[in-house]
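User: Show me sequence and structure for the first protein, then do the same for the second.

Assistant: Starting with the first protein.
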Amino acid sequence: MDVVDFRIRFRTEHMLGPWDPDDPAPHFSQYIELYRMRPRLTPLGMPEYIEMMRAGGVSRGVVCGGSIEDNDHLMQVHEALGEADPFYYIAGVHPKYGVRRNLEEIERCQRAGFLGVNVSPYIWGVPANASVLYPIYAHCEAHNLVAIVHGSLHYNRFQSMWLGDPKYMDEIAMNFPGLKLVISHAGNGFGVLPLAVAQKHPNIFLEFSALWPQYLPEATLRAVNSYLKDRCLFGTDYPLVEFDRAVEAWSEAVKPEVRELFFSANAERCLFGDPR
């Protein structure tokens, strides 16, 4: 089975920097214990990482940057892997850079083959519908780039969980109907609201990384297997969740006739299709 993991991190020293078990970034500290991540927080060379990923049942992965430095690092990895590279790259931006600098950075990443932009309201401390982000959404819509927005429960006790409220995704989708908008972690924690927003807007996708199906509401699993089956995406958010365990759990939760959509086809359409 071909599997595209729509949200992963590399185990390079650079990407693991904020996840140092002894001195983690404040917004990540709780995750380490909650997801029992310590065995997965040691650096791993890219050949070994790819081998481990494929042994876990994942063919390709979508890697999200969080900063300009991350983007530089991802470009270096991509160059080193060459034609054997099994990853798709998403650029990191930040409101602190300012609108012009962010747009310049997105254009630089586009030239390097990146396919979208990663938006992290709960890390930045700005809501997903902040005016400073609208030029980014407009650029993504105009250039058929994906905008991946964290729109779920999070465990950063220093920022409001409402910054990524799925109700903001409704507003964004109304203003940018041609934008490929991915709600990362599928709006988990906000009940049926993200399902309703995705049902309303055909350009919205729900990505299920770092989630175990056995702990999700029945209404969510019903949507994955029926009326939203064309817009749900598999993910692990590795190293939060192990590849093999996630593939196994979701293979059991998703109907056989939906698995190709959930594990790969929807991801390909989201990354390379044009909703306009």
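Switching to the second protein now.
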Amino acid sequence: MHIAIAGNIGSGKTTLTGLLAKHYKYAPQFEDVDDNPYLQSFYEDMKRWSFNLQIYFLNSRFRQIVEIHNNEKNVIQDRTIYEDAQIFAPNLHDMGLMSSRDFDTYKSIFDLMVSFIKPPDLLIYLRADIPTLVNQIQKRGRDYENSIRLDYLKSLNERYEQWIETYDAGKLLVVNMENIHFIDNKKDLSHVIEKIDAELFGLF
């Protein structure tokens, strides 16, 4: 079983990944953030480091998916390979932060990679508005995220909504993150788990 959690920066993906992995006793696959050699440089100079960062993430997530398929484990994955190509890279390109040459190269690599993989059994999309995202980003206090621009978050949100509207690769569960607190409120977590169970195993 492969469950993947999608959502904008600060939407709660990593938190929910850990909680669901514990509940279902699945192996968590977290996004490579702490050891990423490009993230801080990217937020300091997006145009210079956008291609490097996206290639790093693409490679990291492809490796994760290969590992998931080879080990045949039950896995909860923090962010998908599709978000890189459908949201983050084209957003950087449209904002003038990634050249057309780099974007075309990136897309070519992604198209090749995705031809070798299959989508998750369930995609969970965490929908959050900008104030919620900003609040969560500030609460976790990562220094390199202090310079994230509001227009950047907004454009990412718009692309997420467009992507989710057309997503048809597999089962999809949309969770509205307004007034939901996984850590502080066990009822909120239980409610999400009930929805996941219904999608994966049906209603009994």
